[in-house]
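REQUEST FORM: STRUCTURE PREDICTION
Request ID: SP-0412
Submitted by: Lab K.M.
Chain count: 1
Length (residues): 234
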Amino acid sequence: MPTPHIAAEVGEIAPAVLLPGDPRRAERIAAQLMPDARQVSDVRGNGVYTGQVDGRPLTVMASGMGMPSLGIYANELFATYGVERIVRVGTAGGMSPQVKVGDVVVALGAHTDSAMNDRRIAGIRFSAVASYPLVAAAVAAAGDDPVHVAPVVSRDHFYGNPPEQIQALADHGTLAVEMEAAALYGIAAQYGRQALAVCTISDHLLDSSQDFSAAQREENFQRALQLALAAALD
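STATUS: Completed
RESULT:
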């Protein structure tokens, strides 16, 4: 039966879900990948599209911005619709000289300043890590085209993050900052399912001169989409 936030019937959502943040991006991805896509939900204006890619079922929908929003959808997708894997495909801010705007980061793990995973296991500091088979599939799909495989940090706050903390995270090998992966990885672990985040660097905390415009954020994600799709349908 439908959930409070997804109106689709059980069976109308595929085992594999691509989860960008922006509903407009979700609609565009669905149209690009699945000529047969049909909309199975539109609660709160968040379209959910299911179709086939090379004969394999796929659903595309948006998570919204931030871990609480993603958490609602991921829980309902895993618990009610039996989704097996969710792959976030989105944007992130570079925070290390190792990455530049336009690069793709496969998020091996996600540090966070959020409390989303704090109470997951009493007395344990939960490690939010990606599912290895999805990481391997994304990296294999990249071929000889370089891709970064490294930790990111998932923030609750978009603005006002301390520069000294950013530097410390970069010094510990963290390449990018975004707002969803840590919660996605925690929720997937809770349900024994698979999850991955593949992000395009759309702006850089160390050098804003090459930052994407709003339009470029929506258009320059094809490489990340290719890798995310490979992981979702592996």
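NOTES: The two ends are 28 Å apart (CA to CA).
Reviewed by: T.R.
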